[in-house]
Amino acid sequence: MLRALPLRCWWRAGCRAARGRESSPPTSAGSSSSSSSSRPWGAQGASCSFFTSPPRAKAKKRPGSWRPQPGVVQEIEEEDADLEDDEYADLEEDEEALWAQHPATALPLGGQNIFLVHPNVKWGATKQHLTTAELQLAEAVTLVKSLPDWTVADQVILSTKTPNSKLIFGKGNFQALTEKIRGSPGITAVFLNVEVLSATSVREMEDAWGVKVFDRYTVALNIFRCNARTQEAKLQIALAEIPLLRSMLKNELADLDQQGGGSSRYTMGSGETYTEVQHRLLKEKEQKIKRALAKIKRNRYLLQTLRRKRELPAISVMGYTNCGKTTLIKALTGDEGLQPRDQLFATLDITAHAGLLPSRMTVLYIDTIGFLSQLPHNLIESFSATLQDVARSDLIIHVRDISHPETVNQKASVLSVLNSLCLPRQLLDSIVEVHNKVDLVGGYQPTEPCVFPISALHGYGLEELKQELETRLLTVTDKQIKTLRINLSGPQLSWLYKEATVEDVSVLPEDGAADVKVIISSSAYGRYKKLFPHW
Ligand SMILES: Nc1nc2c(ncn2[C@@H]2O[C@H](COP(=O)(O)OP(=O)(O)OP(=O)(O)O)[C@@H](O)[C@H]2O)c(=O)[nH]1
Ligand SMILES: [Mg+2]
Questions:
Q1: Taking each helix axis from N to C terminus, what angle separates 492-499 and 522-531, rounded to the nearest 10 degrees?
Q2: What is the Å distance from ligand 2's center to 418 Cα?
Q3: Is residue 83 predicted with pLDDT exceeding 90?
Q4: Domains plus CATH for the chain?
Q5: What's the mean pLDDT when you consider all of the chain?
Q6: How many CB atoms within 10 Å of residue 464?
């Protein structure tokens, strides 16, 4: 078995939310709403009988400071030596300074008892055509359940004709929703299943409902945070949090002004108003994170360097979250260190793992972050630095969970994000599509041409896949596999070691010769034939 080639340092414990729980204990599920309701309410709007509970007293305003609980800087466990010791120390210092200055996290800490609301757009440009409201709701439930101590207390699909308005729903449905939420005391937060909510929307909804309101961006980011293990992943999440902190700041300043002003008062001695100070601190935090990320990027043991040294072709394994990317790489490499998990966003770091193709060609499989539909572009952007490694690979495998009811929609999402990553055209044109989890679909027969049905978990279809990967790699890298007979007393062998990848040498002692199996580029082979015409 070939060992994984570690590209990162790893953090001991990754979940800031778990730490946050120490200072903010998980909220227990309310008695009346601790289990998911199977009642088919929703879509009927205001006429629905579940909306008839009396409203609660107006919720308290959010606390005065927009900075939440202090975070704890985690220790680094060095499993690889990508960075020098002093560089680690620098980064730790940077990070410590970051949290000391802004110990904030905009993300919700601790457990939550969620009321899940899916706005169903019946028509218009924002209507989703490849999926159904029920399937989108089911995915939102999975997102909630991916977070430790988060439960779905109740869920509803509610139709809207005004998805782009401030309150998402029309007056009647919003009022009915308010009554329902206020009549469910066990609920600690509402997850509104939209891509991203504006600061004003969040503020108005929180005031109306008396509980926190989260969008898809916040929930997905929180999952990322819980699964982040490396310095780079943590910093990328911190960067993706900045828009949330900006929204919180905006609401905080508006609250301050409502309570009699203050945001435009000058802070003593600084010549800056309170608003200006807060914006500056946030900007500084953002710049520090960006600098720290750039430093990691510079110092990181880049795939490019690794590959140049070893001349290894690389295959990026991509796909929707939980489709089986890590399981496939584990099956193709036998790398026991890989830990596939039935969890969204289990993998947050790009790691490379070496495996062998049928002709014993060594290849690096690159495990990547899974995709999710309707995730705001700027969140993807904070991970795009990591995804840049993908651009340097020779081939992409697109893994699909063919047993998933949303598989067609998932494919569309993945291809749309891949296309937005500015990857080389040749790479996009040679994607190998793999249909995984066929063991869960009795008698599965793909309808699309040139796809590979496999079960990564049970090892089905892997030999055919490896054969195809080898053929494609040879084509895209313009290489060929040759067995060349060489004279052992001549310079051919050392030439081949320098100019090609020598896979195997079988010595023929009585002839003073050897059969050498090489992977060689067409141009190098041309030169070889010119240099050694008689061999
Ligand atoms: N039945 C079945 N389950 C599979 C197969 N491949 C993967 N799984 C399961 O699917 C779940 C997700 O697998 P992972 O390999 O972690 O998926 P991933 O795409 O790496 O997920 P993320 O890193 O979270 O994006 C795990 O529970 C796997 O055991 C398969 O061929 N058949
Ligand atoms: Mg994974």
A1: 160
A2: 17
A3: no
A4: 4-225 (3.40.50.11060), 303-475 (3.40.50.300), 478-531 (3.30.70)
A5: 76
A6: 12
- Whole-number pLDDT of residue 128: 62
410 C-beta closer than 6 A to ligand 1: no
Atom in ligand 1 nearest the alpha carbon of residue 340: 16
3-state secondary structure of 374: coil
Distance from C-alpha of 465 to C-alpha of 312, rounded to nearest angstrom: 19
Other CB atoms within 10 Å distance of the CB of residue 467: 14
Nearest CA to ligand 1 atom 8: 324
**pLDDT band with cut points at 50, 70 and 90 for residue 53:** very low
Sheet containing strand 432-436, edge to edge, reads: 4-5, 351-356, 362-367, 314-319, 395-401, 432-436, 451-453
**Which of 139, 320, 321, 322 for mutating ligand 1's site (highest number of atoms within 8 Å of CB)?**
322
Nearest in space to 191 (alpha carbons), one of 251, 245, 118 = 118
* Rounded Cα gap, residues 481 and 501, in angstroms: 9
Q: Which of 37-41, 183-187, 431-435 has the highest mean pLDDT?
A: 431-435
pTM over 0.95: no
Higher pLDDT, 461 or 419: 461
Q: Report the alpha-carbon distance of residue 133 to residue 284 in Å, rounded.
A: 41
